[in-house]
Amino acid sequence: GGLNSGFMITQYTAAALATENKVLAHPASVDTIPTSANVEDHVSMGVTAGLKLRQINDNVERILAIELLAAAQGIDFRRQKLGANAKLGRGTRHAYALIRQIAPFLEE
Fold first, then answer.
1. Are the CB atoms for 28 and 48 separated by under 8 Å?
2. Number of neighbours of residue 79 by Cβ within 10 angstroms
3. How confident is the model over 3-22, as a mean pLDDT?
4. At 103, is the pLDDT very low, low, confident or very high (cuts 50, 70, 90)?
5. Where are the domains of the chain?
6. How wide is the angle at C-alpha 66 spanned by C-alphas 52 and 77, nearest 5°?
7. Positive or negative, the Cα torsion across 2, 71, 22, 9?
8. Nearest Cα to 72, choosing from 53, 54, 94, 52?
9. Which pLDDT tens digit goes with each residue over 27-56?
């Protein structure tokens, strides 16, 4: 609730992506089945594992983007309240500037 709950849905999105990653983290190798008329009794499922890893990486990228947007928004709210007293560290200033080049402050 409140006046500034615009990031609530992005939190749901990040949570859903994190949950998907938990499911994708299940080892592909435990689902191997015999192949070649039972001559090959263990198949590594390396390709399947690689595909799952790629999806996990994509999801993590999205989660981090959401976290960075929320952090930048928080910095802006803090600056509105504290003005010049809201100082940022050098690394934080740099990250904030990069984020705000792409995504402006969300008013509503």
1. yes
2. 16
3. 89
4. very high
5. 8-102
6. 170
7. positive
8. 94
9. 988 877 777 777 766 677 889 999 999 999
